[in-house]
Write a structure and sequence with these properties.
By secondary structure, the protein is α+β, with helices and mostly antiparallel strands. The protein has one domain. It has 6 helices and 10 strands. The strands form 4 sheets. Strands 5-7-6 form a 3-stranded antiparallel beta sheet, with no helix packed on it.
Length: 228
């Protein structure tokens, strides 16, 4: 062993008392190990915060989409067909989803790019909708409550509970207002739910998909589930 790596007692030059000099190499190794543990802890903490903030379903989806993502065009088309059948203008004409058409990555310029259902019709994926022509989108109709991801209601939005956002003031067209007063927007995350590609587990979760007005964070998922 290198003699300079040993811990030793040496006399103090002033009063002759012995002073302990610890192994400096071992101390340096412990310092590096501590730094590594701190960095790893910060990474884990960041992942946990992101997961709880945006929803674990979105986190896994973003991880899968990193570097190209998995092919999800079929599930996107399925979601578009549901929007068409239910005549959901916002979901079909305005909402965008990141679509991966194949496994060629960036060789296909359309991979992992945002598309509305209406735009997907021209991509040869077998999608069409006679129920909606998307003439009432933001560009042609202005910002209405529905095409801005909101829903009209008589009572005030639940701002204190942070489940809804009042977007009434940003609208440029309120013709669809009726007898209502407030345009309120809610996401799956704001309603304390998480997006899932499969149905909610009825024993532990409640399906709150119908309560979600803004599905911009839906990606290729179908169900918004909230723990009971």
């Amino acid at each position: 062993m290198n003699k300079y790596n040993k811990s030793i007692w040496l006399p103090n030059g002033k009063d002759g008392k012995l002073i302990w000099f610890p192994n400096q190499k071992k101390a340096a190794e412990m310092t590096i190990g501590t730094i590594v543990v701190i960095i790893l802890s910060l990474i884990v903490l960041a992942v946990i915060v992101y997961g709880f903030t945006t929803g674990w379903g979105n986190l896994w989806e973003n991880i899968k989409n990193f570097g190209g993502g998995r092919v999800n065009v079929a599930s996107a088309v399925q979601g578009c067909n549901v929007a068409c059948t239910s005549v959901s203008e916002y979901d079909y004409c305005t909402l965008t989803r990141k679509i991966t058409f194949d496994e060629t990555g960036t060789k296909n310029k359309d991979n992992n790019q945002p598309f509305t259902c209406k735009q997907l019709e021209s991509k040869g994926v077998g999608l069409s909708c006679d129920n909606l022509d998307c003439a009432g989108t933001i560009s042609s109709q202005g910002k209405t409550c529905s095409n801005s991801g909101g829903k009209w209601q008589v009572k005030a939005c639940d701002i204190s509970g942070k489940t809804q956002e009042d977007i009434t003031s940003v609208l440029t067209n309120t013709d669809d207002k009726g007898a209502n007063v407030y345009c309120c927007k809610s996401t799956c995350t704001s309603l304390k739910g998480i997006w899932k590609p499969t149905a909610c587990d009825p024993s532990t979760q409640t399906d709150i998909t119908a309560d979600v007005t803004d599905k911009s964070d839906q990606l290729s998922n179908t169900f918004c589930c909230k723990s009971k």
